[in-house]
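Exercise: predict the fold of this chain.
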Amino acid sequence: MKVPTCRCCTPVPSPSAALVEPANVNLVSHRRRHIFLAPVAVFLSGAWGMAKAGDDLLSPFAKPKTKDGKPNAPSVSNAAAMAASESRAMAERSVSALAGLCANTNALIEQLAKLRAEIAEQQRKRQELEAFKAAEMEDYRNGLFCSGCNRTKRDILSKGETFPHSGQKIIAPTPEQIANKDAELQRPIDQLTAALAKNNKDAVVTDTIMRDGREQIEFGVWLWETSIGSERSAMQKNLQRKLDKLQAELKQIEKTIDDIRMAEFASKKNQEVASLEADRRMWQEVLQKRREAMEQEKLDYQRQMTKLERIYADEQTRIADFTARGALHLQINVVPSTRGRGSMLDPFNLGVHFRLGRMLSRSDVAGQVHPEIVASVDQFIQNYKRAAF
């Protein structure tokens, strides 16, 4: 048997091909069938079938492509790789949501500060109006007002005018005049009181939404850390799964090579020995390729993790910038080493309550409605807790 030089195209004898002799070629003796082909057939039906991974297209064990050029679906889904992909997507969604959430919460903080300043000014103004009304009504009831303009002495003198006005006199007010004057002075106080009540109510709602926003930011940071922990765990499990598969293949191939070597020693026919030697060399080449593949998997993993470390550091910097920007100044400890959060924590501390940037609405506050947990976040946390990959 001629051994090809291309490692990607190394032929692997199939059970059917090995057990059926062509009409014009007789390289395998009856004795070799019993000594050599039996263990090889066992290997091919066991480890070889197990090792046919659709995601390893360079493998001599890889499944053939379908007519449309796409590889057949793997017999066993790579759940760890899928979990890593989902974790990366959740981490990116968390960072993106945190950017908008921090900006919106900052805007609410500024809005609340303006409202509180306006409320303080309205309270001060109302106190002034109430004091002015009390003094004015005291002068009015004592008859200290102009009969012509119906203004009090205090008011007229404050404008630099003469009291009473020329041609007018000081008279005692009637009960009707007192009531009208009281209503006149009370009107701006009532208007200011209504505006003050509206602003106070608005401030309570704004404060509630703002506080929820700050809490959501903390949940968002936790969910990001959870996503990082999940991604790391999934990457490690994915590597270990590949290494375990390759190790199983190595053991089976080594056993097959040993069986062929035993058949060589037992054979007395030169032609049969030459054929067995060619087969053994072919399997030794396959063995070397699997060892190289094992080292390549480790190297690829290290490269991927190095790339992810840079991504984690960048995301961590961005989150720290979001939370420190403007008036927010949140003292949130984003995991310095970006190691993520362990699956042993309860869902609350894993960030299950993060709503991916959705803030409370004013109608939510008015109706005392608290939004439900986001289904995709809940499912992600459950999957991480189970670590079923």
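Check your answer against the key: The CA atoms of residues 12 and 60 lie 7 Å apart.
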